[in-house]
Amino acid sequence: MLHCDPCGHPGALSRWYHLPILSVQEPAERHSWLLPQYIYIYSFSAVALSSLSAPFTPWTPKPTGEVHFTETFDNGILTGWILSKTKKEDTDEDISKYDCKTWEIEELRENTVPGDRGLVLKSIAKHHALSAMLTKPFIFENKSLIVQYEVNFQNGIDCGGAYIKLLSSTDDLDLEYFFDKTSYTIMFGPDKCGEDYKLHFIFRHKNPITGDYEEKHAKRPDVDLKKIYLDKKTHLYSLVLKPDDTFEVLIDQTVVGKGSLLEDMVPPVNPPKEVEDSSDTKPNDWDERAKIPDASAVKPDDWDEDDVPKIEDPDAVKPEGWLDDEPEYIPDPNAEKPEDWDEEMDGEWEAPQIPNPNCEIAPGCGEWVRPMMSNPNYKGKWKPPMIDNPNYQGIWIPRKIPNPDYFEDPHPFEMTPISAIGLELWSMTSDIYFDNFIICSEKEVADGWAADSWGVKKLVASANEPGMFSQLVMATEDRPWLWILYILTLALPIGLGVLFCWPKVDDDDDDYKKTDIPKPLTKGELEQEREDEAELEEENEDPAEEGKISKRNMKEADESTGSGDGPVKSVRKRRVRKD
């Protein structure tokens, strides 16, 4: 036995593959909280197996509780599935027959899990139908119904569906004659035509009075289905119906739609208690006009209905340089009459007209006409103002009467039992991949099945995702303007770094250097400075030593004064004092 799970679950490596040197040890229990641990186990197993050369046998997920149907297709054959032999009604003869050669069992083209297979719809522009009986019928009583399966639009989706039908339990159900009008209880799954992306949840409700069935449609989920349908990834579609007459629709284990079977279906399950009386008619004197013309209003005397809406602008001035004598178009001087031109048949030949080149440099050519402007005095045809209608009675509606077809179904969850599952599809897209169907009642069973199947696919797909840099480059293929954003994103922090981190010159050093520049002094100023230094020497405690320093400084100053006929340079002197 090989133990590989640091979380304490034994046999993690053998959990996915049966190796010749290993035995299988299943966990004693599986709970929904174990899903992250299972995905971790599979990750570890995939890495470990990539370094082993020994042959292995793929491990197929198995349900851990009561189920009504499961299918993985991993055995490579359509065990229990029946291809329809009938024809679709109300369609062209050449495409009416359901094509039995359009289904294959294959691995995924991308992000393949070794040994994992699925059902693939291969052909386009054909009708397809196959079905299988449930292990045991599902009766809508006191347990939830959970339907779950995987779909991958490997070529994207143009027009077509990937939904399933849960067929009603009837005495005349024959899967060899399964077609579009076969009775079903629930229809669920993705569909697309044109730019309309849908995720169907439809159930057929039986009228308890008439016995007729009517389709009830759930509202559209609040999610971008286009992105999901076109990303060429395997997605998990789940439908949960509960005995309390509520439902949930999930994609990849995330709720995208939920509601009540009584309140959130179109049309509603229960009809209205009252309906309009079809025999009721509107009275002839019923007045629906909210506003009427004021009969007492009189047209003003200065109202001129003959005014025109547009007049010439009296302030307009002809632009300078306008060429009045030049036409806007002239005959093309380079044009030549065709050799086959027959004037008796075609008439007199005339050269085609071209824009006058002289008009290109002028503001205009030909006769100048004043531009038109709105007439400030124009009022149009006079009409009396509208006032409230004193006889207004509102919009007439027929009276209400009790609905003769009224009924109340307090528990629409109690639908017609189901005994088979079927795919009856039309598609203009090939290679639609289906896998890992399960119908059960317990959420823990469905979650465990998803962890063992879709969870592995998701893990492999995540491992094969390109790096961040590659994703950024790929994004520019459809949106080249992203390059500008990338450049600005990189340039901004660099520019800010240069702005705030560039070393600045110390102003104190500049001031110090400026004070070191010698200033020109006259002889008088130099003598005064010498007298000040002499007084300072007398105040020092050591006159002899200070005298030596003073004489040395005086000598340096004498040597720097020059001839004494003009300004002289002074030298900064350090005054030394002893404590």
UniProtKB/TrEMBL annotation:
Superkingdom of the organism of origin: Eukaryota
Chain spans, region Disordered: 262-341, 512-579
Matching PROSITE patterns: CALRETICULIN_1, CALRETICULIN_2, CALRETICULIN_REPEAT
SUPFAM superfamilies for the chain: Concanavalin A-like lectins/glucanases (SSF49899), P-domain of calnexin/calreticulin (SSF63887)
Bias (Basic and acidic residues) ranges: 273-292, 308-318, 512-527, 545-558
Localization per record: Endoplasmic reticulum membrane
Compositionally biased residues, Acidic residues: 528-544
Disulfide partners: 159-193
Keyword Calcium: yes
GO CC, one annotated term: endoplasmic reticulum membrane
Keywords: Acetylation, Calcium, Chaperone, Disulfide bond, Endoplasmic reticulum, Membrane, Phosphoprotein, Repeat, Signal, Transmembrane, Transmembrane helix
Listed transmembrane segments: 481-502
Molecular-function annotations in GO: calcium ion binding; protein folding chaperone; unfolded protein binding
Record-given protein name: Calmegin
Organism, scientific name: Sphenodon punctatus (Tuatara)
Native organism taxonomy: Eukaryota, Metazoa, Chordata, Craniata, Vertebrata
Gene from which this protein is expressed: CLGN
